[in-house]
Amino acid sequence: MKIIGLTGTHRSGKDTVAKYLKEKHGYKTLTFSDFLKKRLRKKDIKITKMNLSKEGDKLREDKGRGALAEEIYKEIKRNNWEKIALSGFMSPEEVKYIEEKAEKFSLINVTAKPSERFKRRSESEPDDLEEFLGRDKRDEKKGVKEVMEEADYEIKNNSTKQKLYEKTNQLINKINND
Fold this sequence. Notes:
This protein has helices at residues 14-25, 32-42, 49-63, 67-79, 92-101, 114-119, 129-142, 144-149, 161-177, and strands at 2-7, 28-31, 83-87, 104-111, 153-156. By secondary structure, it is of the alpha/beta class. The chain has a single domain (2-177), classed as 3-Layer(aba) Sandwich (Rossmann fold). Strands 2-3-1-4-5 form a five-stranded parallel β-sheet. The two termini are 16 Å apart. The mean pLDDT is 93.
């Protein structure tokens, strides 16, 4: 099984890359937040960025920092998926767990300038740049900074979607030929 892991700060373009890999390269896509959304629905808790974050924090606290990766891997195995783009790695333990299970694993850090990320925010996210970037600090406590630093590759996403797609194609071709 081949897994492309995607990490980066929020609104950097991770899920856009995953969606592109699905549409153009035949990958199955999963995000860590998809799994958390299922948990919140079962508990009848409103799905918000903050509730997703709290649910992930609780799961990591109760079952360890790699617990989300373990649950996601079970779903991958259950469905017999062979090519997966998995978006939203937050802790080194999540990376380690998936890396050990995959036949081939590549981790991509998708980056974007704070000003670009702020332009991409959703209506439910803060209108204040400083408050918007506050989420980065919360995510750093989970270990995302270490994950981004240990990535095998980086895609800088400070331009158009078309440029992001071109960079993604170039990188996937490189990964496939390594």
